[in-house]
Every structure is written in C-alpha cells, then in structure tokens.
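= Tokenised fold =
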Amino acid sequence: MKGTVCGIVAAVAYGTNPLGALSLYDMGVNTSSVLFYRYLLAVVMLAAVMIFRRESFRISARHLGALAVMGALFAVSSLSLFESFRYMDAGIASTLLFVYPVMVAVIMAVFFHEKITFVTIVAVILATVGIFMLYRGDGNASLDAFGVMLVMLSSLTYALYIIAVNKSVPGISSMKTTFYVLLFGVAVIAIHSMSGYGGKLQMLDTLPMWGYALMLALLPTVLSLVLMAISIRCIGSTPAALLGALEPVTAVVIGVFVFDERVTLRLAAGMFLVLLAVILTISARQIAGWRFSSAVDAVAGLIHAGGARLRHPFRWK
C-alpha cells in the first residue's frame, strides 16, 4: 500500500510539470535555464531537509559512482525530451514518452528474469491506448525522425533510471538517493548549457520567474522523485512505471480546471482506460492468485448484488 500510494502521488506531482515549465517559456527562459534552476533549487531543498533530519551526506565511493550514472541518466532524459519539443508538437512527444513502462518491463524480463504476467501485459496495453486517447492534436502535426529519436532516448534513459533506483543503491534512503541524483544532474545540465544548444544559462530576474522555478523544484522534482524512489523499492520497477500513466491524466485535469479546456468523450474514455490500468497494476498480486472458479464466483456475486440493487433500490447496504 505504501509503495502504491507513493507511486500515485509521485505521478500526480510530476504531472504538474507543464504549469511551471510553460509559464517560464512564455517569460523567455530557455530550456537549459529551466532545467538548471529546477534541479538546483531541488538540491537546496533536499539538503535543507536532510540537515533538519540530521541525515548524513556520507556516501561510499561505489555508491557515488552509481549515483553519478543515475544523475546523468535522469538529466539526459529531461534534456532530450525538452529538446524534442523543437522538432515536434509537445503533446506528441509527451505521448510517445510513455513507451518507457514497456521498456522497463522488457529490460526487467530479459536482464533480471522478472516474470511478465498477463495482468501486466493487459495493464500496459490499456495504459498505452488511454495515453494516446488523451493526446489532443490539431491533426496537422507531423513526426520528425530526429524528434522521435530524442523522445525514444528520453524514454530509454528514464527506464534505465527507474531500474537503477531499484537495483543499484541498496541501503541508501530515498531522500539521499534523490539528492545525489539531482546534484549530478545539475552538473550535466550546466555542462550541456556550455554547448549553447539548449541556450546559455539565464538569470531569473522577476518574482514570478522564481515562483515558477520553486514550484518546479518542489512538486515535479523533489516530491515526485523521492516518492517514486520509495514506490520503486516497495512494489518494483515495472508496477511503479505503470503508475506513471497518471501523469498525463493530471495534465488533462489541470487543463480542464486551470485553463478551462473542454472534456470530450475521447478524453473521458482515455482517462477511464488509464485508471483501469492503474487499478489492474495495484491489484495484480491478488488477481494472479485467483483461480478460475473463484473468479467466476466473484463475478456471479457482483451480478447477483447488482440485480438485488435494481429490485430493491432502498435496501442496499
């Protein structure tokens, strides 16, 4: 339950990313600067929490190397996704990104001999179809080959990061893991900015800029990554990745309530499929233990209860 709740909250928190990022873009802040301040402020927040909790920053050399690789993976994932927006519609890129749970499942099966259950396969299919239904394009957006390659790179590096959290740094708290991941991520983004490809680092010179940067650091970075690390360690890489399907659902909900966007039948159906996939992921262990006879009995009981509800609508308990 702890891992499932953390995974759901992490996905919802990460889904708030567009609120800060798009606002900063509108204010003229470039990609490198948005990611740099997002990571840097997150590192400061985590350091403050660790000091308050009197948690040691000490780390072994072996773990430090693994955390450096994880930080590079996460930074490359963020950079390649944001760079893909130059070559294709952001909605298409964000939709294609959701191939990462499939990558996690395949890598875990091939290299770590994790059994892929029928329930997991069904959940992946439902979530993928639901995510594509949530995409709202104008019908004229095209797929650029280099842009698709960047999104696939983002998906792969994020999938590897999720697996690394589960396999590479046992015995280290999720808070400390996230702190070092983001610390090395800041270094990667700073080096990338020197190339000038994503834009040179800019100063944030207004209070709204700092406000949006702080929001990006707190919700889709600190809260999301710490809870994601807890979720991965509690329920495993593949289920935690599947819970990430709630990220685009959150974006749709924000669009409806914040930007007054209209809910269509397709969006409602997409959200239903994603939520169904999440429910299957949460219930996977219980479903795997069902026998055919017990499943038939359960369905028969639900049908009987539904019939009783229709016959006696005021006696339902």
